[in-house]
């Protein structure tokens, strides 16, 4: 996802580098990183926009235990997979 046009549509970049505009959020699939050190972003709910890391996965329930915020003041939450996605953005905005 490159940009949000509305709360329900976005611009996405394909693996080939092509931009696709006006995709509805229901057309997208959430990608959960497999590695434990990779970052995620919360995309739904009150913590939307926060960046963190997955501590544990519960594939049977479709949930992950995630740590949001900086190591000195972490917030640990159990969130549904649909509320988080793999975060590839830059910066240290956890």
UniProtKB/TrEMBL annotation:
PANTHER family attached to this UniProt entry? G PATCH AND KOW-CONTAINING, G-PATCH DOMAIN AND KOW MOTIFS-CONTAINING PROTEIN
Q: Which GO terms describe its cellular component?
A: spliceosomal complex
| Protein family (similarity comment) | Belongs to the MOS2 family.
Q: What is the protein name for this chain?
A: G-patch domain and KOW motifs-containing protein
Assigned keywords, A-Z: mRNA processing, mRNA splicing, Nucleus
Q: What are the top taxonomic ranks of the organism?
A: Eukaryota, Metazoa, Chordata, Craniata, Vertebrata
- GO biological processes: mRNA splicing, via spliceosome
Q: Does the keyword Nucleus apply?
A: yes
The free-text function statement in the UniProt record for this protein reads: RNA-binding protein involved in pre-mRNA splicing.
Q: Where in the cell is it found?
A: Nucleus
Say yes or no: keyword Nucleus present.
Answer: yes
């Amino acid at each position: 996802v490159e940009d949000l046009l509305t709360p329900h549509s976005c611009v996405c970049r394909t693996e080939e580098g092509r931009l696709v505009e006006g995709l509805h959020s229901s057309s997208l699939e959430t990608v959960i990183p497999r590695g434990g050190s990779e970052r995620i972003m919360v995309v739904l709910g009150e913590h939307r926009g926060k960046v963190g890391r997955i501590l544990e996965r519960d594939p049977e329930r479709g949930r992950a235990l995630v740590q949001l915020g900086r190591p000195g003041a972490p917030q640990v939450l159990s969130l549904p997979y649909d509320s988080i996605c793999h975060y590839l953005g830059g910066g240290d905005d956890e």
